[in-house]
Specification:
With 207 residues, the protein is α+β, with helices and mostly antiparallel strands. The chain has helices spanning 45-94, 100-147; strands spanning 2-7, 10-13, 22-25, 32-33, 38-42, 149-151, 156-161, 177-181, 185-190. α1 (45-94) packs antiparallel against α2.
Length: 207
Amino acid sequence: VIGSLVPREEVLVGVDLDGFRLTEVDAEVGDRVAAGQVLARLSGDTLAILLAQNEASLARGDAAIAQAKSQIAEARATELEANAALDRGNSLKEKGFAAQATIDQRRAQADAATARRAAAEQGLAVAEAERNLTLASRRELQLRVEKTEVKAPTDGVVLSRNARIGAIVSSAAEPMFRLARDGVIELEAQVPETSLARIRPGQTVTV
């Protein structure tokens, strides 16, 4: 018979990033690799800068949240004081010891204090939303950093390597590596019809 040795299952290893330079290749054709083993590395300088900027944004977000909480505490104290003053004024008015103008002034102060407290709470909500957005961006950056390490998705043997140091990678390009899953290789043979009758299960084969 004639035929070819082929992997029982071929695994393609590519990248999910575009525009990054390949800086290191750690696997060659014929190497046996384990799942999770780093096969190649991409330059992560740009991502490191973006992570540093993200860290600064997180610090600003934490400061904005702390400031908003302080403003809320101050606004609530002012609101309590203004409402207490209004209650005292209403009590005095009922007894005839306070003018309506005084009550109106205290009610205006209480309303203003309530408005400042509500504005401070809205400011806190905005600051927390911005921080959550920054955290989401950070998680996305960290995921991209992880992807700069091209890892074997399964145990296997490297069949081919298309990775070249210095190349700019693309997710649309050819796979960087092809693996034979678990290193299992089969003989894909073509048997003439005249020989089919002589083949039996378990028959010894010399390759």
